[in-house]
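User: Predict the structure for this protein chain, please.
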Amino acid sequence: MEYSHEIIRPNEDIPFKLFVFEGSDGNYIRQKHWHRSIEIFALFAGKLTFFINEQEYPLRPGEFMVVNSNEVHSIFAPEANKTIVLQIPLSTFENYYTDERFIYFSRSSRHQDEEVMKLIGDMFRTYTEKGCGYELKVQSQFYMLVYLLVTKYRQTEVSPEVVRLGKKLNRLSAITDYMKKNYSRDLSLETLAKTFGYSPTYLSRMFRKYALTNYKTYLDGIRLEHAVELLERTDQSIGEIALQCGFPNSKAFSRAFKEKYGMLPSGFRRGEGCE
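Assistant: Here is the predicted structure, written as structure tokens:
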């Protein structure tokens, strides 16, 4: 199974991302991925199971989970749940990095912390109600949460292996960020390797080792995500979408689309559904 790097963008009116978990209806699996941001899941009802670096962490109501920067994780929501998610830019904590320019928050299988849970619930209510001055109030609550994370959960002693893996994924994240911004351009392995100062062989090895896929498959995946959106939301021709998403022609696009989704782009547009 391949891993994917997720880019986190803050909400437009606050310096972090705050939302209801997309798996709140249950029967949901979020496949393995990683991101630079610190992520917090606060579970108020139902149950969730996290898999972080191949270790299982069940979560019950009243508990929250911290996912550290560049930790490979997946999530299973077997039933309906009420979960609030915060995604906090890593730069928020830069004054509290270790000497390795690294920060890590403890995770004793899960956390029960009434103060943190109440704060997250209050933040979400403040943000959704959007009363006068809500941006100021929600940010004051947010920085109180940051204070609690730094003073109660930050670990100053982290194993060299965790630091090393974090640095490797941080380098790969910079590369995949670039790919996601430039997917429509000619992005050969050789070109990208030169851009980041690696040999093509080394870069190819990075993808296979840390993303568990090859470079071309990862790039095609990015392009296909954008292509699906265009198929759903526009009347552009298959050929136009292919070129706009970085494929050399409609034949290459259709081949990659069928390989990933089990059908041709034309069939998807007709609403036949993916296999």
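The longest strand covers residues 38-45.
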